[in-house]
Amino acid sequence: MKNKTFIAAILCAACAGLPSGLSAQGTTHDSEKEKQWKSMENGPWDFAPDWYYYFLHNGYSGAEMYWKWAGFKSGFRVRFKEEDSNVKCIMPVRVTAEETQRQKAEKAEQERVRIEELYKEELLREADRSVDLTYASYRDEFDRMQACISDGLLYCMTKSGGKLKRQVDELSRRNEVLCEGIAYIHKTGIGYGLENAKRQQAYEDAKTEMGVLVSRTAHLCAVAATHY
Predict the structure, then answer these.
(1) Cα gap 163→224, rounded to integer Å
(2) What pTM did the predictor assign?
(3) Cα 80 versus chain centre, distance
(4) For residue 163, how far is the Cα from the chain centroid?
(5) If we measure between CA atoms, which residue out of 180, 184, 178 comes closest to residue 210?
(6) Do 156 and 168 meet the contact criterion of CB atoms below 8 Å apart?
C-alpha cells in the first residue's frame, strides 16, 4: 500500500511539472545573424561581435581597426569595409544573373518573332507557288513559235529529200529540251512550285531561246529553198 501511494505521488509530481515543460516556445531575435544576412544580401555591411570577426574572420568581413576619440570612452574600434572583403555582397551577382536571364528572354523573343516572320513569308511563297499566273501571258506566243518551228523543219525535210536530216534532228532535239523545260516550269504542287516572279523570268529566257530556234529554222528553210 505504501508503494502504491509513493508511485501515485511521483506521477502527480510529474503531471504537475508537465505544463511548464510543454510551454510554447517564444520567438527569439538574433541580431548577429541578422547583420550577417543583411551584409551578404543588400547591406549595410556590418558584423557582430566586431572583435570576433576582426580576429577570426577578417578575410571575408573586411574588418579593420581604427582609433576613435570619444573622451573617456576613446579607444580602438572595429569597422567593416566591403571593398576589403574577399567575398563581397552577393546581391550584385544576383542582379547580374537577373539581367542575364532578361537578356536571354529578350533574345529568345526576338528569335521567335524572326522565325514567325519567316514562317509567314514561306506561307505567302507557298500560296504563290501553288498557281501559275504568268503562263497565260506566254502561251499564245509559245504556240505561234512552235508552229513556225514544226512547219519549217517539215519543209526542210521535204524540200531536201532528207539530205538536211542531221540539221533538222539537231534543231528538233533542242526544241524538245526547251519544251520539256517549259513544261517543268509550268508544273505546280509539291516539289515543282516556283514563285510567279521566278516563273516569269524563266518564261522570258525560254521565249528568247525559242526565238533563236525560230531564226535557225528560218535560215535552214532558206538553205533548203536555195540549194534543193
Answers:
(1) 9
(2) 0.44
(3) 47
(4) 67
(5) 178
(6) yes
CA distance linking residue 59 with residue 89, whole number of Å = 13
Question: With 70 as the cut, is the pLDDT of residue 115 above it?
Answer: yes
Place of cell 517549259: 182
**Lowest-confidence segment of 16-30, 56-70, 160-174 by average pLDDT:** 16-30
Are 86 and 60 contacting, i.e. CB atoms less than 8 angstroms apart?
yes
CB atoms within 10 A of CB 39: 23
Sign (positive or negative) of CA dihedral 169, 170, 176, 177: positive
Strands 75-80 and 63-68, bridge-based pairing: antiparallel
- Mutual angle of helices 135-160 and 165-186, in 10-degree steps: 170
List of residues 6+ apart from 165 with CB closer than 8 A = 157
**pLDDT over 90 (residue 216):** yes
For the chain, the C-alpha Rg in angstroms (whole number) is: 49
- What is the CB-side half-sphere exposure of residue 100 using CA atoms within 13 A? 6
Give dist(CA 126, CA 124) in Å, integer: 5
Neighbours of 51 (CB within 10 A): 13
Which 3 state secondary structure label does DSSP give 16? helix
Per-residue confidence band for 9, with pLDDT thresholds at 50, 70 and 90? low
3-state helix, strand, coil split of the chain in percent (to 5) is: 75, 5, 20
CB 66 within 8 A of CB 76: yes
Angle, helices 196-227 vs 165-186, to 10°: value is 170
